[in-house]
Amino acid sequence: MVYMYGVHETPNPDASDTEGANPAGRMRAIAADRYGPPAGLELRDVPVPVPADDEVLMRVEAASVNPLDWHRATGNPYLMRLSEGLRRPALPLGNDVAGRVEAVGAAVEDLRPGDEVFGSCRGAFAELALASPAALVRRPEGVSAAAAAALPIAGATALQALRDKAALQPGESVLVIGASGGVGTFAVKLARVLGAGEVTAVCSGANGDLVRSLGADEVIDYRTTDVTTLGRRHDVVVDNAGRHPFRDRRRAMATDGRWVQVGFPKGPLVAGLDQMLWGKLLGPFGAGSFHPHFTSISAADLEELAAYVVAGDLDPVIGSVRSLAEVGGALEEIAGGHTRGKLVIDVLGR
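The structure corresponding to this sequence follows.
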């Protein structure tokens, strides 16, 4: 279900027209008092976080929105509340970030105030956020903050799915299901970068031209055709949707094919658990293998993605840019499952 709403913005009595927030004072940030539809999120005036000795405080220029952010805001599936907080998110929302280092803790050696960086942080939906130096890398010259913020989770997910879980080999065929979203657009392009012989993309017909421009040889409209019924077998499948039953998946895989599941149906319980269990139990007895994938962010992967961008091999698809006050709406759009590329939050534009 998709909710229509607006993010509530509380007045900031200390706001001024000067640059950003005072690191010793207040800032604007998206806050959640409880789990629930993102209509409950508010843009508030809150204290600026103070970095620990091993942390970096960065001024956020841009952030991007991921399904992970929706799960953390809503508390679904319920099991994640054991680590995220029982009644509300324990940590501020927002992960993907690009900006400038504002201050560093006493033990931080590799970064200095003023450095342009991107990566993963705690609370990217804010004017300032805390991050571990290990989760940040320097932003290459010529790469915009919006493009850099689009890279971390979606880019790393696609890269790890193809390179690590599927062990894609040059010349192999790749099927990308859900090819026009954040992970999907990266997967289509990276499949080409990593040497795939043929790339087939599944998305809506309206996004066919987009995924073809990224390197897809063929586009299949999921609204009219079930790709598992076509009798074609693929060496690697990257699935961002998780809608096909396990028995149907085997029809689309080569004998030694690898099906990498990076997206799961949304639900209040452990979404996709049945698919993971069936894949692990029955995979060894049939064609191909099934690999659920959960992304971890590393500096090495961020640098590899940035290098592809600098070389012109990878250009993040930014479907739309929103203001900080529109984070809630962006989260609901992500929940609908029909986004085009990445949704980016322009924090400096406020």
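Confidence is low (pLDDT under 50) at residues 1-21.
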